[in-house]
Amino acid sequence: MYLEQVNPYSISKQHKRDKLHIVERIRLLFDPKSFVEYYPQDENTGYDGVITGYGNIYGQRVYFYGQDFTHMGGTFGYQHSQQIIAILREAIAQRKPIIGIYDGGGARIQEGAASVAGCGELFRMNTMASGVIPQIAIIAGTCAGGAVYSPGLTDFVFTIDKISNLFVTGAKVINEVQGTDYLIEELGGASIHAAVSGVAHFRMNTERECYAQVRKLIDMLPPCYSKERGYRTDTYHEKDLSDIRLLLPKDKQEGYDVCPVLEEILDEDTWIEVHKEFARNIVVGFGKLGGITVGVVASQTLYQNGSIDVDSADKAARFVQYCDCYNIPILTFADSTGFVMEAEQEYKGLIRHGAKMIHAYANATTIKLTVVLRKAYGGPYIFLGCKQLGADRSYVWPDVEVAVMKAEGAVAVISHSQLAKLEGVEKKQFLKEQLAEYQRRYMNSDMVLNRHFVDAEIVPEQTRQILYQDLIRLMGKPAAVLVEKKHTNPPV
Protein backbone atom coordinates (compact mmCIF):
# COMPACT_ATOMS: atom_id res chain seq x y z
CA MET A 1 0.00 0.00 0.00
CA TYR A 2 1.54 3.29 -1.15
CA LEU A 3 -0.03 5.27 1.69
CA GLU A 4 2.02 3.26 4.17
CA GLN A 5 5.23 3.34 2.13
CA VAL A 6 5.46 7.04 1.25
CA ASN A 7 8.96 8.46 1.53
CA PRO A 8 9.24 11.34 4.03
CA TYR A 9 11.54 13.02 1.50
CA SER A 10 8.65 13.19 -0.98
CA ILE A 11 6.54 14.97 1.62
CA SER A 12 9.28 17.50 2.34
CA LYS A 13 9.65 18.18 -1.42
CA GLN A 14 5.99 19.13 -1.61
CA HIS A 15 6.25 21.31 1.48
CA LYS A 16 9.10 23.24 -0.15
CA ARG A 17 6.64 24.10 -2.92
CA ASP A 18 4.14 25.27 -0.26
CA LYS A 19 1.91 22.31 -1.10
CA LEU A 20 0.67 19.35 0.90
CA HIS A 21 1.57 15.82 -0.12
CA ILE A 22 -1.15 13.61 -1.59
CA VAL A 23 -1.17 11.50 1.58
CA GLU A 24 -1.78 14.59 3.73
CA ARG A 25 -4.52 15.71 1.38
CA ILE A 26 -6.32 12.39 1.71
CA ARG A 27 -6.20 12.62 5.50
CA LEU A 28 -7.73 16.10 5.44
CA LEU A 29 -10.43 15.17 2.95
CA PHE A 30 -11.80 11.95 4.46
CA ASP A 31 -13.09 10.90 7.86
CA PRO A 32 -10.29 9.50 10.06
CA LYS A 33 -9.10 5.98 9.16
CA SER A 34 -11.83 5.54 6.53
CA PHE A 35 -9.78 5.66 3.32
CA VAL A 36 -9.22 2.39 1.44
CA GLU A 37 -6.67 2.43 -1.36
CA TYR A 38 -7.35 0.71 -4.70
CA TYR A 39 -4.55 -0.99 -6.62
CA PRO A 40 -4.06 -1.53 -10.35
CA GLN A 41 -5.39 -4.94 -11.43
CA ASP A 42 -1.94 -5.88 -12.73
CA GLU A 43 0.22 -6.36 -9.62
CA ASN A 44 3.37 -6.10 -11.75
CA THR A 45 2.53 -2.54 -12.77
CA GLY A 46 4.39 -0.30 -10.36
CA TYR A 47 3.24 2.90 -8.76
CA ASP A 48 2.43 5.42 -11.49
CA GLY A 49 1.91 8.68 -9.64
CA VAL A 50 -1.79 8.44 -8.80
CA ILE A 51 -3.62 7.14 -5.74
CA THR A 52 -7.17 5.85 -6.12
CA GLY A 53 -9.64 4.51 -3.60
CA TYR A 54 -12.62 5.47 -1.48
CA GLY A 55 -13.35 6.78 1.99
CA ASN A 56 -16.09 8.43 4.02
CA ILE A 57 -17.07 12.07 4.27
CA TYR A 58 -19.45 12.56 7.19
CA GLY A 59 -20.09 8.83 6.97
CA GLN A 60 -20.98 8.86 3.26
CA ARG A 61 -18.82 6.84 0.87
CA VAL A 62 -16.97 8.96 -1.69
CA TYR A 63 -14.56 7.73 -4.37
CA PHE A 64 -11.23 9.41 -5.04
CA TYR A 65 -8.24 9.81 -7.33
CA GLY A 66 -5.30 12.08 -6.68
CA GLN A 67 -2.12 12.85 -8.58
CA ASP A 68 1.24 12.67 -6.82
CA PHE A 69 3.47 15.44 -8.14
CA THR A 70 6.52 13.89 -6.47
CA HIS A 71 6.34 10.90 -8.87
CA MET A 72 7.14 11.82 -12.48
CA GLY A 73 5.61 15.23 -11.93
CA GLY A 74 2.13 13.73 -11.62
CA THR A 75 1.97 13.44 -15.42
CA PHE A 76 -0.73 11.50 -17.25
CA GLY A 77 0.75 8.23 -18.49
CA TYR A 78 -1.43 5.51 -19.98
CA GLN A 79 -1.47 3.39 -16.81
CA HIS A 80 -2.04 6.55 -14.75
CA SER A 81 -5.16 7.31 -16.81
CA GLN A 82 -6.37 3.70 -16.62
CA GLN A 83 -6.30 3.79 -12.82
CA ILE A 84 -8.45 6.93 -12.77
CA ILE A 85 -10.83 5.43 -15.34
CA ALA A 86 -11.18 2.27 -13.24
CA ILE A 87 -12.11 4.19 -10.08
CA LEU A 88 -14.53 6.39 -12.05
CA ARG A 89 -16.20 3.29 -13.44
CA GLU A 90 -16.51 1.86 -9.93
CA ALA A 91 -17.99 5.13 -8.61
CA ILE A 92 -20.60 5.09 -11.38
CA ALA A 93 -21.48 1.46 -10.65
CA GLN A 94 -21.83 2.16 -6.93
CA ARG A 95 -23.67 5.46 -7.51
CA LYS A 96 -21.32 7.46 -5.28
CA PRO A 97 -19.65 10.89 -5.74
CA ILE A 98 -16.03 11.15 -6.82
CA ILE A 99 -13.33 13.71 -6.03
CA GLY A 100 -10.16 14.21 -8.08
CA ILE A 101 -7.03 16.11 -7.06
CA TYR A 102 -5.04 17.41 -10.02
CA ASP A 103 -1.38 18.22 -9.46
CA GLY A 104 0.65 17.32 -12.52
CA GLY A 105 2.38 18.48 -15.67
CA GLY A 106 -0.14 17.19 -18.21
CA ALA A 107 0.42 14.37 -20.68
CA ARG A 108 3.57 12.27 -20.22
CA ILE A 109 5.57 13.24 -23.30
CA GLN A 110 7.88 10.23 -23.26
CA GLU A 111 4.90 7.87 -23.70
CA GLY A 112 3.86 9.55 -26.93
CA ALA A 113 0.43 8.73 -28.34
CA ALA A 114 -0.33 6.26 -25.53
CA SER A 115 -0.54 9.14 -23.06
CA VAL A 116 -2.87 11.09 -25.34
CA ALA A 117 -5.06 8.02 -25.86
CA GLY A 118 -5.33 7.57 -22.10
CA CYS A 119 -6.51 11.16 -21.71
CA GLY A 120 -9.15 10.64 -24.40
CA GLU A 121 -10.50 7.56 -22.62
CA LEU A 122 -10.60 9.51 -19.35
CA PHE A 123 -12.55 12.37 -20.93
CA ARG A 124 -15.14 9.90 -22.19
CA MET A 125 -15.50 8.39 -18.72
CA ASN A 126 -15.87 11.89 -17.19
CA THR A 127 -18.67 12.46 -19.68
CA MET A 128 -20.32 9.12 -18.91
CA ALA A 129 -20.33 10.02 -15.20
CA SER A 130 -21.92 13.43 -15.84
CA GLY A 131 -25.47 13.54 -14.52
CA VAL A 132 -25.06 10.19 -12.77
CA ILE A 133 -22.73 11.09 -9.87
CA PRO A 134 -21.30 14.42 -8.65
CA GLN A 135 -17.73 15.00 -9.86
CA ILE A 136 -15.51 17.45 -8.00
CA ALA A 137 -12.07 18.55 -9.22
CA ILE A 138 -9.48 20.16 -6.95
CA ILE A 139 -6.61 21.95 -8.70
CA ALA A 140 -3.89 21.63 -6.05
CA GLY A 141 -0.96 22.49 -8.29
CA THR A 142 -0.54 22.69 -12.05
CA CYS A 143 -2.92 21.14 -14.57
CA ALA A 144 -1.74 21.83 -18.09
CA GLY A 145 -2.28 21.02 -21.74
CA GLY A 146 -4.98 18.59 -22.83
CA ALA A 147 -5.26 17.24 -19.28
CA VAL A 148 -7.21 20.38 -18.27
CA TYR A 149 -10.30 19.02 -19.97
CA SER A 150 -10.78 16.35 -17.33
CA PRO A 151 -11.52 18.90 -14.58
CA GLY A 152 -13.33 20.96 -17.22
CA LEU A 153 -15.79 18.09 -17.63
CA THR A 154 -16.53 17.80 -13.90
CA ASP A 155 -19.35 19.55 -12.03
CA PHE A 156 -17.36 21.72 -9.63
CA VAL A 157 -13.77 22.96 -9.86
CA PHE A 158 -11.90 24.19 -6.78
CA THR A 159 -8.78 26.35 -7.05
CA ILE A 160 -6.39 27.43 -4.30
CA ASP A 161 -4.54 30.74 -4.08
CA LYS A 162 -0.81 30.71 -4.91
CA ILE A 163 -0.65 27.03 -5.95
CA SER A 164 -3.38 26.44 -8.57
CA ASN A 165 -2.50 26.94 -12.24
CA LEU A 166 -4.79 25.71 -14.99
CA PHE A 167 -4.09 26.38 -18.66
CA VAL A 168 -4.11 24.79 -22.11
CA THR A 169 -1.05 26.66 -23.37
CA GLY A 170 1.65 27.81 -20.96
CA ALA A 171 2.74 31.40 -20.47
CA LYS A 172 6.19 30.73 -21.94
CA VAL A 173 4.78 29.53 -25.27
CA ILE A 174 2.18 32.31 -25.49
CA ASN A 175 4.80 34.94 -24.69
CA GLU A 176 7.10 33.61 -27.42
CA VAL A 177 4.32 33.48 -30.01
CA GLN A 178 2.63 36.78 -29.16
CA GLY A 179 5.56 38.77 -27.83
CA THR A 180 3.85 39.24 -24.47
CA ASP A 181 5.14 38.87 -20.92
CA TYR A 182 2.39 37.04 -19.04
CA LEU A 183 3.18 35.46 -15.71
CA ILE A 184 1.79 31.97 -15.17
CA GLU A 185 -0.62 33.29 -12.50
CA GLU A 186 -1.94 35.95 -14.88
CA LEU A 187 -2.77 33.30 -17.44
CA GLY A 188 -4.15 30.45 -15.37
CA GLY A 189 -4.03 31.32 -11.68
CA ALA A 190 -6.78 30.75 -9.13
CA SER A 191 -8.18 34.28 -9.28
CA ILE A 192 -8.26 34.35 -13.10
CA HIS A 193 -10.37 31.21 -13.31
CA ALA A 194 -12.63 32.24 -10.42
CA ALA A 195 -13.40 35.78 -11.61
CA VAL A 196 -12.60 36.02 -15.32
CA SER A 197 -12.83 32.70 -17.18
CA GLY A 198 -15.45 31.12 -14.90
CA VAL A 199 -13.68 27.75 -14.99
CA ALA A 200 -13.40 27.64 -11.18
CA HIS A 201 -16.56 27.43 -9.10
CA PHE A 202 -14.71 27.98 -5.81
CA ARG A 203 -11.48 29.83 -4.97
CA MET A 204 -10.02 29.06 -1.56
CA ASN A 205 -7.21 30.70 0.41
CA THR A 206 -5.48 27.51 1.58
CA GLU A 207 -5.52 23.78 0.96
CA ARG A 208 -6.98 23.09 4.39
CA GLU A 209 -9.80 25.55 3.76
CA CYS A 210 -10.37 23.93 0.37
CA TYR A 211 -10.78 20.39 1.68
CA ALA A 212 -13.11 21.59 4.44
CA GLN A 213 -15.32 23.30 1.84
CA VAL A 214 -15.32 20.21 -0.39
CA ARG A 215 -16.51 18.15 2.57
CA LYS A 216 -19.30 20.67 3.20
CA LEU A 217 -20.37 20.57 -0.46
CA ILE A 218 -20.39 16.76 -0.56
CA ASP A 219 -22.58 16.74 2.54
CA MET A 220 -25.05 19.03 0.76
CA LEU A 221 -25.38 17.15 -2.53
CA PRO A 222 -27.34 14.00 -3.39
CA PRO A 223 -24.83 11.16 -3.93
CA CYS A 224 -26.24 10.25 -7.34
CA TYR A 225 -29.11 10.70 -9.77
CA SER A 226 -32.41 9.51 -8.37
CA LYS A 227 -35.96 9.71 -9.69
CA GLU A 228 -37.03 10.75 -6.21
CA ARG A 229 -37.31 14.52 -5.91
CA GLY A 230 -35.52 16.29 -3.11
CA TYR A 231 -32.52 15.16 -1.09
CA ARG A 232 -33.92 15.57 2.41
CA THR A 233 -33.51 15.10 6.13
CA ASP A 234 -36.85 16.66 7.20
CA THR A 235 -35.78 19.17 9.83
CA TYR A 236 -38.16 22.07 9.20
CA HIS A 237 -38.45 24.70 11.90
CA GLU A 238 -40.01 28.12 11.98
CA LYS A 239 -37.78 31.18 11.64
CA ASP A 240 -38.53 34.75 12.59
CA LEU A 241 -38.51 36.67 9.31
CA SER A 242 -40.04 39.84 10.73
CA ASP A 243 -37.01 41.92 9.69
CA ILE A 244 -36.60 40.54 6.18
CA ARG A 245 -38.20 43.61 4.56
CA LEU A 246 -35.48 45.78 6.10
CA LEU A 247 -32.90 44.05 3.91
CA LEU A 248 -34.44 45.60 0.78
CA PRO A 249 -34.16 49.36 0.05
CA LYS A 250 -37.42 51.27 -0.39
CA ASP A 251 -36.12 52.65 -3.69
CA LYS A 252 -36.58 49.79 -6.17
CA GLN A 253 -33.70 51.06 -8.30
CA GLU A 254 -31.22 50.93 -5.42
CA GLY A 255 -28.99 47.88 -5.25
CA TYR A 256 -28.66 45.55 -2.25
CA ASP A 257 -26.96 42.26 -1.40
CA VAL A 258 -29.44 39.44 -2.01
CA CYS A 259 -27.43 36.83 -0.06
CA PRO A 260 -28.67 37.91 3.41
CA VAL A 261 -32.24 37.63 2.05
CA LEU A 262 -31.53 34.07 0.92
CA GLU A 263 -29.92 33.20 4.25
CA GLU A 264 -33.06 34.39 6.06
CA ILE A 265 -35.27 32.08 3.99
CA LEU A 266 -32.96 29.04 4.05
CA ASP A 267 -32.07 26.88 7.05
CA GLU A 268 -29.44 28.36 9.36
CA ASP A 269 -25.81 28.14 8.14
CA THR A 270 -26.58 26.07 5.04
CA TRP A 271 -26.00 28.60 2.24
CA ILE A 272 -23.11 27.69 -0.10
CA GLU A 273 -22.56 30.18 -2.92
CA VAL A 274 -21.18 28.75 -6.17
CA HIS A 275 -19.22 30.82 -8.72
CA LYS A 276 -19.13 33.68 -6.21
CA GLU A 277 -16.60 35.80 -8.10
CA PHE A 278 -17.81 35.15 -11.65
CA ALA A 279 -20.73 37.00 -13.30
CA ARG A 280 -21.62 38.66 -10.01
CA ASN A 281 -24.89 40.13 -11.32
CA ILE A 282 -26.51 36.77 -10.65
CA VAL A 283 -26.12 34.50 -7.61
CA VAL A 284 -26.30 30.71 -7.64
CA GLY A 285 -25.74 28.24 -4.84
CA PHE A 286 -27.07 25.52 -2.59
CA GLY A 287 -28.86 25.56 0.72
CA LYS A 288 -31.40 23.62 2.69
CA LEU A 289 -35.04 24.43 3.34
CA GLY A 290 -36.56 22.27 6.04
CA GLY A 291 -33.66 19.86 5.57
CA ILE A 292 -34.29 19.60 1.82
CA THR A 293 -31.34 20.45 -0.43
CA VAL A 294 -32.32 23.20 -2.88
CA GLY A 295 -30.55 25.06 -5.65
CA VAL A 296 -30.96 28.83 -5.64
CA VAL A 297 -30.76 31.34 -8.51
CA ALA A 298 -31.14 35.01 -7.58
CA SER A 299 -30.64 38.44 -9.12
CA GLN A 300 -27.77 40.35 -7.49
CA THR A 301 -28.64 44.02 -7.84
CA LEU A 302 -25.33 45.18 -6.34
CA TYR A 303 -23.85 44.48 -9.76
CA GLN A 304 -25.30 45.97 -12.95
CA ASN A 305 -28.65 46.23 -11.16
CA GLY A 306 -29.10 42.49 -11.59
CA SER A 307 -29.25 42.81 -15.38
CA ILE A 308 -28.45 39.69 -17.39
CA ASP A 309 -25.38 39.46 -19.62
CA VAL A 310 -23.55 36.71 -21.49
CA ASP A 311 -21.65 35.35 -18.48
CA SER A 312 -24.53 35.47 -16.00
CA ALA A 313 -26.79 33.64 -18.47
CA ASP A 314 -24.15 30.90 -18.83
CA LYS A 315 -23.67 30.71 -15.08
CA ALA A 316 -27.38 30.35 -14.35
CA ALA A 317 -28.02 27.91 -17.21
CA ARG A 318 -25.27 25.50 -16.17
CA PHE A 319 -26.40 25.60 -12.54
CA VAL A 320 -30.06 24.95 -13.41
CA GLN A 321 -28.97 22.02 -15.58
CA TYR A 322 -26.94 20.56 -12.71
CA CYS A 323 -29.86 20.81 -10.29
CA ASP A 324 -32.18 19.18 -12.79
CA CYS A 325 -29.72 16.29 -13.31
CA TYR A 326 -30.12 15.31 -9.66
CA ASN A 327 -33.74 16.39 -9.12
CA ILE A 328 -32.65 19.17 -6.78
CA PRO A 329 -35.54 21.69 -6.46
CA ILE A 330 -34.75 25.13 -7.88
CA LEU A 331 -35.75 28.31 -6.05
CA THR A 332 -35.50 31.48 -8.14
CA PHE A 333 -35.61 35.01 -6.71
CA ALA A 334 -36.05 37.61 -9.45
CA ASP A 335 -35.19 41.30 -9.18
CA SER A 336 -33.87 42.57 -12.51
CA THR A 337 -34.32 45.54 -14.81
CA GLY A 338 -33.40 43.79 -18.04
CA PHE A 339 -30.31 42.97 -20.05
CA VAL A 340 -26.91 44.67 -20.00
CA MET A 341 -27.26 47.17 -22.84
CA GLU A 342 -23.86 47.18 -24.51
CA ALA A 343 -22.77 46.60 -28.09
CA GLU A 344 -20.07 44.26 -26.78
CA GLN A 345 -22.75 42.01 -25.31
CA GLU A 346 -24.47 41.76 -28.68
CA TYR A 347 -21.14 40.92 -30.34
CA LYS A 348 -20.48 38.19 -27.77
CA GLY A 349 -23.79 36.55 -28.62
CA LEU A 350 -26.22 37.67 -25.92
CA ILE A 351 -29.04 36.10 -27.93
CA ARG A 352 -27.33 32.71 -28.02
CA HIS A 353 -26.17 32.79 -24.41
CA GLY A 354 -29.51 34.07 -23.16
CA ALA A 355 -31.21 31.24 -25.02
CA LYS A 356 -29.17 28.79 -22.91
CA MET A 357 -30.88 30.12 -19.81
CA ILE A 358 -34.35 29.80 -21.33
CA HIS A 359 -33.53 26.30 -22.54
CA ALA A 360 -32.25 25.20 -19.13
CA TYR A 361 -35.35 26.39 -17.25
CA ALA A 362 -37.83 25.15 -19.86
CA ASN A 363 -36.16 21.74 -20.08
CA ALA A 364 -35.83 21.21 -16.32
CA THR A 365 -38.40 18.82 -14.85
CA THR A 366 -37.38 19.14 -11.20
CA ILE A 367 -39.48 21.24 -8.79
CA LYS A 368 -39.25 24.93 -9.73
CA LEU A 369 -40.48 27.73 -7.46
CA THR A 370 -40.10 31.43 -8.26
CA VAL A 371 -40.50 34.62 -6.25
CA VAL A 372 -40.31 38.15 -7.71
CA LEU A 373 -38.86 40.31 -4.94
CA ARG A 374 -39.15 43.89 -6.27
CA LYS A 375 -39.17 44.06 -10.05
CA ALA A 376 -38.87 42.01 -13.23
CA TYR A 377 -38.75 43.90 -16.50
CA GLY A 378 -38.93 42.32 -19.93
CA GLY A 379 -36.73 39.34 -20.72
CA PRO A 380 -35.52 38.65 -17.17
CA TYR A 381 -39.13 38.08 -16.07
CA ILE A 382 -39.13 35.18 -18.52
CA PHE A 383 -35.52 34.09 -18.03
CA LEU A 384 -35.74 33.88 -14.25
CA GLY A 385 -37.99 30.87 -13.95
CA CYS A 386 -41.40 32.29 -14.82
CA LYS A 387 -44.54 30.16 -14.80
CA GLN A 388 -44.67 30.26 -18.58
CA LEU A 389 -41.31 28.42 -18.70
CA GLY A 390 -42.67 25.71 -16.44
CA ALA A 391 -42.37 26.94 -12.86
CA ASP A 392 -44.57 24.84 -10.58
CA ARG A 393 -45.42 27.86 -8.44
CA SER A 394 -44.70 31.54 -9.06
CA TYR A 395 -45.15 34.32 -6.49
CA VAL A 396 -44.68 38.06 -6.13
CA TRP A 397 -43.99 40.10 -3.03
CA PRO A 398 -46.19 43.18 -2.37
CA ASP A 399 -45.68 46.28 -4.55
CA VAL A 400 -43.54 44.54 -7.15
CA GLU A 401 -43.12 45.95 -10.63
CA VAL A 402 -43.61 43.52 -13.52
CA ALA A 403 -43.51 45.19 -16.92
CA VAL A 404 -42.00 45.09 -20.39
CA MET A 405 -39.48 47.80 -19.54
CA LYS A 406 -38.81 50.77 -17.29
CA ALA A 407 -41.38 53.55 -17.42
CA GLU A 408 -38.99 56.04 -19.07
CA GLY A 409 -38.25 53.75 -22.00
CA ALA A 410 -41.86 52.65 -22.39
CA VAL A 411 -43.26 56.20 -22.44
CA ALA A 412 -40.60 57.30 -24.93
CA VAL A 413 -41.90 54.63 -27.33
CA ILE A 414 -45.65 54.81 -26.63
CA SER A 415 -45.86 58.62 -26.63
CA HIS A 416 -43.19 59.27 -29.25
CA SER A 417 -45.40 61.24 -31.64
CA GLN A 418 -46.93 63.42 -28.90
CA LEU A 419 -43.55 64.16 -27.32
CA ALA A 420 -42.14 65.19 -30.69
CA LYS A 421 -44.73 68.00 -30.93
CA LEU A 422 -44.02 69.44 -27.48
CA GLU A 423 -41.21 71.55 -26.05
CA GLY A 424 -40.01 73.03 -22.79
CA VAL A 425 -42.26 73.09 -19.72
CA GLU A 426 -45.21 71.65 -21.60
CA LYS A 427 -43.14 68.64 -22.70
CA LYS A 428 -41.84 68.04 -19.17
CA GLN A 429 -45.35 68.20 -17.72
CA PHE A 430 -46.74 65.81 -20.35
CA LEU A 431 -43.85 63.40 -19.75
CA LYS A 432 -44.42 63.51 -16.00
CA GLU A 433 -48.12 62.72 -16.44
CA GLN A 434 -47.44 59.87 -18.86
CA LEU A 435 -44.83 58.34 -16.56
CA ALA A 436 -47.26 58.43 -13.64
CA GLU A 437 -50.01 56.89 -15.76
CA TYR A 438 -47.74 54.13 -17.07
CA GLN A 439 -46.55 53.32 -13.55
CA ARG A 440 -50.15 53.24 -12.28
CA ARG A 441 -51.43 51.00 -15.05
CA TYR A 442 -48.48 48.75 -15.87
CA MET A 443 -45.73 48.94 -13.25
CA ASN A 444 -47.42 46.67 -10.73
CA SER A 445 -48.44 43.07 -10.22
CA ASP A 446 -52.17 43.53 -10.91
CA MET A 447 -52.06 42.29 -14.50
CA VAL A 448 -49.95 39.19 -13.82
CA LEU A 449 -52.15 38.32 -10.83
CA ASN A 450 -55.47 38.97 -12.56
CA ARG A 451 -54.47 36.92 -15.59
CA HIS A 452 -52.91 34.19 -13.44
CA PHE A 453 -49.44 34.63 -14.93
CA VAL A 454 -48.28 34.22 -11.33
CA ASP A 455 -50.02 32.20 -8.65
CA ALA A 456 -50.27 34.60 -5.73
CA GLU A 457 -48.94 37.59 -3.87
CA ILE A 458 -47.22 36.54 -0.64
CA VAL A 459 -45.73 38.55 2.20
CA PRO A 460 -41.97 38.27 2.73
CA GLU A 461 -42.39 37.00 6.29
CA GLN A 462 -44.25 33.88 5.08
CA THR A 463 -41.98 33.08 2.13
CA ARG A 464 -39.98 30.37 3.89
CA GLN A 465 -43.09 28.56 5.13
CA ILE A 466 -44.90 28.75 1.78
CA LEU A 467 -41.90 27.51 -0.22
CA TYR A 468 -41.38 24.62 2.19
CA GLN A 469 -45.06 23.61 1.94
CA ASP A 470 -44.76 23.71 -1.85
CA LEU A 471 -41.66 21.51 -1.76
CA ILE A 472 -43.42 18.87 0.34
CA ARG A 473 -46.56 18.97 -1.81
CA LEU A 474 -44.64 18.73 -5.08
CA MET A 475 -42.30 15.90 -4.10
CA GLY A 476 -44.69 13.44 -5.68
CA LYS A 477 -45.71 15.48 -8.71
CA PRO A 478 -46.19 13.38 -11.87
CA ALA A 479 -43.21 13.08 -14.18
CA ALA A 480 -43.29 15.68 -16.94
CA VAL A 481 -44.59 14.45 -20.28
CA LEU A 482 -41.96 15.47 -22.80
CA VAL A 483 -42.00 15.07 -26.56
CA GLU A 484 -40.21 11.84 -27.47
CA LYS A 485 -36.69 12.55 -28.71
CA LYS A 486 -33.10 11.48 -28.17
CA HIS A 487 -32.16 14.76 -26.48
CA THR A 488 -32.56 18.50 -26.99
CA ASN A 489 -30.15 20.62 -29.02
CA PRO A 490 -29.22 23.37 -26.55
CA PRO A 491 -27.70 26.62 -27.84
CA VAL A 492 -24.04 26.32 -26.80
Quick summary:
With 492 residues, this protein is an alpha/beta fold. Helices cover 38% and strands 18% of the residues. It has helices spanning 2-5, 8-16, 22-29, 78-94, 113-129, 149-152, 171-178, 184-188, 190-195, 207-220, 259-265, 310-325, 343-347, 350-363, 379-383, 407-414, 416-421, 424-441, 446-450, 463-474, and strands at residues 36-38, 50-57, 60-67, 98-102, 135-139, 142-144, 156-160, 165-167, 202-204, 272-274, 282-289, 292-299, 330-336, 368-377, 393-396, 401-403, 456-457.
Keywords:
2 domains, globular, 2-enoyl-CoA Hydratase, Chain A, domain 1, alpha/beta, 20 helices, seven-stranded mixed β-sheet
What does it look like?
- With 492 residues, this protein is an alpha/beta fold.
- 38% of the residues lie in helices and 18% in strands.
- The chain contains 20 helices and 17 strands.
- The strands form three sheets. Strands 10, 11, 12, 13, 14, 15, 16 and 17 form an eight-stranded mixed β-sheet that branches.
- Helix 12 packs parallel to helix 14 and helix 16 (407-414) packs across helix 18 (424-441).
- It is globular, with a radius of gyration of 25 Å.
Strand content: 15-25%
CATH fold label of the largest domain: 2-enoyl-CoA Hydratase, Chain A, domain 1
Cα gyration radius (Å)? 25 Å
- CATH top-level class of the largest domain: Alpha Beta
CATH superfamily of the largest domain: 2-enoyl-CoA Hydratase, Chain A, domain 1
Put simply, the count of helices is 20
Helix content: 25-40%
The residue ranges in which pLDDT falls below 50 over 5 or more consecutive positions are none
Structural class: alpha/beta
Q: Which whole number gives the mean pLDDT?
A: 91
The CATH architecture of the largest domain would be Alpha-Beta Complex
Query: How many domain regions?
Result: 2
Largest sheet: 8 strands, mixed
Shape by Cα distribution: globular
- Taking the alpha carbons of the first and last residues, their distance comes to 45 Å
**Total strands:** 17
